[in-house]
Amino acid sequence: MKRRYLAEFIGTFGIVFAPVALSASGRMTGGDSTLAGSAWASGLAVLGMIYALGHISAAHFNPAVTLGFASAGRFPWRYVFPYIIAQFAGGIVAAFIVVALFGSGRAYGVHVPAASLSPFAAVGVETVLTFLLMLVIIAVATDKRAHGAIPGIAIGLTVVFDVLIGGPATGGSMNPARSLGPALAALPTTIAPVAHWWIYAAGPVLGALLGAQTYEAVRGNPEYGVNAPSGI
To answer: Is residue 119 a contact partner of residue 199, using CB atoms and an 8 Å limit?
Structure first.
């Protein structure tokens, strides 16, 4: 299991480092600071990490996803806490490395909901976005009918359109570890991302639980299901 925990650490590091580093480098001459750039950096990082490490840990890389799998009976509860610790550690280390490389005193890749959104609406946005992501993840990762080459592309592209939709509203996190790392690294420059982090915990967890249970309801024959990762 230690190799799986390490894979979760590395994978989460990768998917947090990419958009957070883009946020930092985008402020340089010739950098890309657009929403589309962030969406594609996030989606491609997820795609790459899934193909690199998915066969080891099933590429959760997200505490909400791990909880979603466990709630659906597709991942043992006894491994949930170590997976989540590895994921948060990977996200935090990634964010602080960006600060070390690009300089402190700036908030890189943080998530704060738009001022026009109420906290309830912000949680709702993150819930819906994560619901869609989890639905795709559990479908391609735990259904024998899904082709083995599909997961990385399907999940990566879902992240892209989720960030494009949710970016202006909440940042399109879908991942408590993605939001916590940059929020902590931004201290003491700003406390707003830490103060709003509960939104990026509540929304993604709720969305992942709903997405996982929904797919289990529509899966059909339970014999089509496998665990993620299989064999545990």
So the answer is: yes
Spatial CB neighbours of 124, under 8 Å, sequence gap ≥ 6 = 203
Asked whether residue 228 is domain-assigned, the answer is no
DSSP string, 126-184: HHHHHHHHHHHHHHHHHBTTS-TTHHHHHHHHHHHHHHHHHTTTT-----HHHHHHHHH
Distances (CA, A) of 144 to 172, 224, 228: 29, 5, 11
Which phi and psi (to 5°) does residue 186 adopt? -80, -15
**Looking at the domain assignment, is residue 230 inside a domain?**
no
Number of domains in the chain: 1
Q: Is residue 110 part of a domain?
A: yes
Which range marks the domain in which residue 34 is found? 2-222
pLDDT in tens, 6-32: 999 999 999 999 999 999 998 887 788
Residue type, 43: G
227 in a structural domain: no
Write the pLDDT tens digit of every residue in 39-68: 999 999 999 999 999 999 999 999 999 999
Distance CA 153, CA 104 (A): 34
Q: What CATH number corresponds to the domain at position 103?
A: 1.20.1080.10
Tell me the C-alpha distance between 30 and 33, whole Å. Answer: 9
CB 30 within 8 A of CB 104: no
Give the three-state DSSP class for 225.
Answer: strand
